[in-house]
Amino acid sequence: MTRSECLQHQILTHAQRHETEDRTSEETKITQIQHAKQQKTKETGSDQTSLPGCDTVCVNLTAKEILDLVDEIISISTRVHDAVALVPLNKLSYENVVLPLAELEARQLPLIQCCVVPKMLSPHDNVRKASAEAELKIDAHLLSCRKREDVYRVIRIYAAKGESISPEAKRYLQCLVRDFEHNGLNLTATKREEVDRLRNEIDELSLRYVQNLNEDSSCLFFTEAELAGLPLEFLQSLDKTQNKEFKLTLESNHVAAILELCKIAKTRKTVAMAYGKRCGDANILVLQKLVQSRHRLARLLGYAHFADYALDHRMSKTSTRVIRFLEDISSNLTDLASRELSFLKDLKRKEEGELPFGVEDLLFYIKRVEELQFDLDFGDIRQYFPISLVLPGIFKICQDLFGIKIEEVTEIDVWYYDVRAFAVFDSGSGKLLGYFYLDMFSREGKFSQSCVVALQNNALFSNGACQIPVALLIAQLAKDGGEAVPLGFSEVVNLFHEFGHVVQHICNRASFARFSGLRVDPDFREIPSQLLENWQVNCLFDQKIYSDDDVDFHQLIRSLHPKVMLGLPVVEGTNPASCFTRAVIGSEATCYSRLWSEVYAADIFASQFGDGHPNLYNGLQFRDKVLAPGGGKEAMELLTSFLGREPSTEAYIESRSKYSL
């Protein structure tokens, strides 16, 4: 059964049959888009357009095809929701309430990604523009679906029946109810209006905070002597004034280069001060209003404060537990950190005299210690990491560890000539597990960060069909004259990290697309990548402002900073709260999550793979007990099942002691 036939069957089963002709016509439009792609491929002489056995992922649509497809996605979704809303209340069942929405979600994800991913990757301006337009339409539609009172009423009444369904189906039903109730549908009309108003206000304040930083045009000027230690290629990338001074912006890549590589302490401090003063008073006021609005929203939805709202469905569960976790890590590493800081201070004294050691010196002297201890120039070691060596090496480790086999797929439709695709098989049975694309090199118009995107999630359908996962790894490696530039050490580590997400996506076998691939507990999501890859004031600040009322940001930073940073004061004249974007958008009340994952990944690595060699038995256990269930089970339940106990912080603390300066 083709994708369009499956969608048509779902609609016909759960909607009014007198609309059949209209539906068939609209379903045919999706089929026509696929047929057009196949015809285009025949004309160019290629053997196939899509991944074998996976024609649902169309990676190279034109602008018109994207806009046509998004209209059909919205039309089909609306009809399925309409059909669920019309089910008589005395005939509610899993098959006519939950199943249609679950299968719609599974089938529409790859179609949605076909529309929205091109804005990140397409080399064509018109395609990127159409994709961005499509994303706005889809986002608006999905939000409207989560606000449908008629659908919520049916789902709530069905959930209250307590019908016997599988644990994973029950978890999915709970997610459906939560989606609606987080939009206030269990509240009175007046309170629901207030929820909408607060959400709009939060969006506006978040945008204003980020825009203030983006529009900041502050810059500094330095002589070549004041930038000693910076590589020639970096200096050549900077604008110069008529008196031959270099213009340095306060963009993060410029600031990071100075703090990590510049040998002049005064320059490092000047840059750190300027960076920390950006948007000072303006953004502090915005953040105060934003935190208050988030607290009011959380309380309307039944939570004590915003942190509890943000953590309710995470592995950590409560703000109290997060703060205890962070303070436990901090207290256990205080002695070690004090010794390391003393070492760094001594090194600075030897190299720069009796200048005081500040936060702005940390990155530079940590890197200096690495260079001295390992006698390494991190620029020179690039020659040992060509992509032609690194990529097969990563593949081999994952194959040996997780019992998989990776094979390249050729002669398929891709959006850029150097994009590659691979199939992943179970090495024992030979069963196809999924596919992944690699878009490895930077280019004009391409999304500028490294990440992994789910193009299609694993799912099982009521007719017995199985949808296999497809992932996309986006990297930002460089080319010189058309040839790949060898990787720096940090790039190798990052590639290992991101490929961990690919393995996580491909090995997931959850029945519901909602729990498949990367759609797992965010506290858990980074653990597989941290396992393969093998920060603190900000985390505590973020957690405390969202768990307390009327926090004085400036005073909080002043009290936390010397405690966590072992007496090092905040950089003079700065207030980090004015430029801490992660606490505003993307990681609000959850900045701890990356460290949480790193700590528990260390426990898994030390207890199950401690000798540093791939252990196929333990790797298969991890694949089956942790990766396969995905979000279908509580993350703590998965880890406890794999480890035979609750995860611990001990291995992380020991590893930091073992590899101390």
Automatic annotation (TrEMBL):
A Gene Ontology term for the protein's cellular component: cytoplasm
Cofactor section: Zn(2+)
Biased composition, class Basic and acidic residues, residue ranges: 16-29
InterPro entries, per database record: Neurolysin/TOP_dom2, Neurolysin/TOP_N, Pept_M3A_M3B, Pept_M3A_M3B_dom
Domain Peptidase M3A/M3B catalytic: 260-536, 540-655
Compartment(s) of residence: Cytoplasm
Region of interest called Disordered, as start-end residue ranges on this chain: 15-50
Keywords: Coiled coil, Cytoplasm, Hydrolase, Metal-binding, Metalloprotease, Protease, Zinc
GO BP field: peptide metabolic process; proteolysis
Entry keyword Ligase: no
Organism domain of life: Eukaryota
Entry's Gene Ontology molecular function annotations: metal ion binding; metalloendopeptidase activity
Coiled-coil blocks: 188-215
Cofactor, how bound (note): Binds 1 zinc ion.
Family: Belongs to the peptidase M3 family.
The protein's name in its UniProt record: Peptidase M3A/M3B catalytic domain-containing protein
